[in-house]
Amino acid sequence: MDKIEKLVGQSTKFLDQIAGLAIIAVMLLIVFNVILRTTVGTPILGTYEYVGFITVIIIGLAISHCAFQNSHIAVGFIMDKFPERVRIPVDFLIHLASIIFLALSSFHVFKYAQSMVLTGVVSPTTKTPIYPFICMAALGLAVLCAVLLVRMIKLTIRVKINE
User: Fold this and answer.
1) Residue 68: helix, strand or coil by DSSP?
2) Distance CA 157, CA 149 (A)
């Protein structure tokens, strides 16, 4: 189990590093766009589209690492009042529902990207294909699903050990 958790952790870290590079890219794009607009009078064509595309990469790829590190805000003040014998089954059910939702979401987002490939949908200004960015979002959802699956398995193992 530790090997799988380590592999998932390395995957999330790699995707998070790509998201970090994407943040730098969007920052540079905006700065150069402003500089060119004010000095030369000609902005970079499609900056708005590119910022949107890169933002999809940032959020889609960084969310799984955030979940792996338990950095999401968790509203547990109500559940903290219950005993552990109540919290663990509720945690399990929440993880299970989340895994099912994320697996289905990832699958359907990939199918949506495939339909974008088949129909040849591109952005209006720069004519950039949209499907790679949709695939990045689907990949992020799939890895987030893997993170929650590992966490649910660890929860199940912890319960078995405590019995």
Assistant:
1) helix
2) 12
CA 108 and chain centroid, separation: 15
Q: What is the DSSP letter of 40?
A: T
Fill in the DSSP letter of residue 80: G
Chain segment 65-97, per-residue pLDDT in tens: 999 998 776 666 777 788 888 888 888 898 999
Residues 6+ apart with CB under 8 A from 79: 87, 90
H helix or E strand, kind and range, residue 106? helix 84-119
Q: Nearest-CA neighbor of 142 among 101, 92, 97, 95?
A: 101
The structure's pTM equals 0.87
Report how far residue 83's alpha carbon sits from residue 79's, in angstroms, rounded to the nearest whole number: 8
